[in-house]
Amino acid sequence: MSEIPCSGDVRASKVLAERGEESDEDLPPTPLMSAILAQDHTLLISLLQSGASPNEGPRGWYGRTPLQAAALLSPLSPQILRTLLSRSADPNAPGGNNGGRTALTLAAGAGNREAMEILLEAGANVNLPPARYMGRTPLQAACEGGDTFIVRILLNRGGDVNAPPAHNLGRSALAAAAENGHGEIVESLLSLGAVVNAPISRANGITALQGAARFGDLAIVEMLLQAGVDVNAEASHTFGTTALRAAAEKGHVEVLKRLLEAGADVHVTSGARGLTALQAANINGREDVIAALMHFSAASSSNPSSSYLVDFVLVLHLHLDRVEAGGMYSDPQCELQ
């Protein structure tokens, strides 16, 4: 005998069909999730009274719990968020495997201040360790998002400035802010004792300086240098770049020159292909960076009369690199290799 759906299930199915909503990996939302996405509070109450769990697990690699979905609603529905919490929804439950971010982390990263305040009132933990893959603490997510007000709230609540990053694609709070050009947050974190040379994720990690160099913010680069950052910090094992190479492949000439002044090593290789800054600039067609690096190599030569030979050797290497690579890459992903 087939199961007869309750009125709540039927109504949720209609909501889903009308909205055309689909969750991760093409898995259809549950009736409860459909009610949340439709911001239908009446249906939500009906489903909860019928036995739907406010703690149903995330579906798919990037799935979310009902509370996590509610924390990201735009516009926010405080009523839905409070209803789920009143039914014992867990504010510290992890999301799907890829990211695993709690409701508080998601709200912090999205700049949803009201959702954050409601979740904090409900006992959300500001210092839960990040999930292994692409995870963030609430503070790391807020620093990435760039909302200074939310960053201050989390710091006042005891957010750990130096919480370790996730194992894969992790970011410290300082690196998250620097990589996204949030100078005011970088300055604040440094004043609170953020470690500028903290260990990074082995896979797809980045230091604060490498992030700032990639973004191209000279002011942030200067702040980090003044704080004693290691200009030649090793790149992460997978898809990593040194700070100099990051600036070179993105074409940030002024940042590159400042890194060279600070002692950046032009001979260091990084990334899966083991490229120097010069090779990365060449493959990405950064002619002004190439000129700056060649000038630096010639000027720093111990024998000024050999500058022409230095130029010749560099040009030859650049030509061979382009031949080997089949010309300049057009795929932006080449910058990460």
Automatic annotation (TrEMBL):
The keyword Membrane does not apply. The keyword Repeat applies. It comes from the Eukaryota. InterPro entries: Ankyrin_rpt (IPR002110), Ankyrin_rpt-contain_sf (IPR036770). Gene3D superfamilies: Ankyrin repeat-containing domain. Keywords: ANK repeat, Repeat. It holds the Pfam family Ank_2. ANK repeats lie at residues 62-96, 99-131, 134-166, 169-201, 204-236, 239-271. This is Uncharacterized protein. It comes from Cryoendolithus antarcticus.
